[in-house]
Amino acid sequence: MIDQSVFGINAVKSKLLIHRWDNPLDFLNDMALFVEVVKARNFTRAAETLGIPNSTLSRRISELEKGIGLRLLHRTTRKIEPTEAGRLYFERCKRIVDEARLAHEQLGEMLARPSGLLRASLPVDFATVYLAPLIAEFSQLYPGINFEFDLSPRQVDLITDPVDVVIRMGEPADSNLIARKLASLGRRLYASPRYLEISGEPGRPSELVNHECLRLRGQGAGRWTLSCDSERVDVDVGGRFELNSVGMLRRLASLDLGVALLPEGIAAQDVSDGKLRKVLPQWQALPVSVYALTETRLLPAKTQKFIEFLRDKLECA
């Protein structure tokens, strides 16, 4: 709002002024345009600096003058000079525009070099295998960020718990949260060479009913959906072990206790070491999605950068 003492505008006219602009941002934008015109002393040069048509700039300044109810510029064929009111208005507007520009620059700097404590809830096995090297790289890029990680499987309440972001595998159940997909992980069947030597190797998905299948607790634990090219089958599986840890599934499979359905990245090291081998290698399960969950879309820079970094790295993995 313009100070009445500067222009001698009475209270009634001041009220009209408040309602002149439907969008307050238009008012602020016009102030910035006016500052550039006075600095350039020329509409054409100011329009070139701003990257807008000369006619648009002239019209906007005229609307600004009409809204205020005072002439701000003396226009001649050769140059433009501010009126007495225009000089006073310029000094006020210039400070406001400079402060706004400084605020944007400082926020941009904050986004480029975020700092503070980042609190995240992570699934322990996924964090250990996939995220640990990425977190190490991220921490080197942003030395101003400190980290606090919760690797327990508990349900996190983003509203009441002191957590900035939750990373979870599988489709999110809470529709009130903002979910950003980070990756889609392929899954295959694995077992130890000794288990396959003792129990035999299945040649078709239907033969899994004769095997010990190590199952991840949750919806669909007793039924695996497998696909090969265009063929897709649902297989009912059973066995002595059902648990809620992917890392423990991998460990039990490597100890010759059965067939496990695992994300390829989590099984990769044991496959390389010869502890696990692919079972039915032409077949694969539906991929599992990884999401970053937050309470709001408006995130502090540290959280925004963390999510963007993980998404970029996991998409390329």
TL;DR?
This protein is of the alpha/beta class. It has 11 helices and 13 strands.
The major sheet is characterized as: 11 strands, mixed
Low-confidence stretches: 1-21
| Count of DSSP-assigned helices | 11
CATH top level of the largest domain? Mainly Alpha
Characterization of the model:
The structure is a single chain. The chain is α/β, with parallel strands linked by helices. It has three domains: 4-111, Winged helix-like DNA-binding domain superfamily/Winged helix DNA-binding domain (Arc Repressor Mutant, subunit A, Orthogonal Bundle); 116-182 and 290-316, Periplasmic binding protein-like II (D-Maltodextrin-Binding Protein, domain 2, 3-Layer(aba) Sandwich); 185-289, D-Maltodextrin-Binding Protein, domain 2 (3-Layer(aba) Sandwich), CATH 3.40.190. The protein has eleven helices and 13 strands. The protein has helices at 4-7, 11-18, 24-40, 43-50, 54-68, 84-112, 124-141, 193-199, 246-254, 264-272, 301-316, and strands at residues 73-75, 80-82, 116-121, 145-150, 165-169, 178-191, 213-216, 223-228, 231-236, 242-243, 259-263, 277-279, 284-294. The strands form two sheets. Strands 3, 4, 5, 6, 7, 8, 9, 10, 11, 12 and 13 form an eleven-stranded mixed beta sheet that branches. Helix 3 crosses helix 4, helix 3 (24-40) packs across helix 5 (54-68) and helix 3 packs across helix 6. Mean pLDDT is 86; it is low at 1-21.
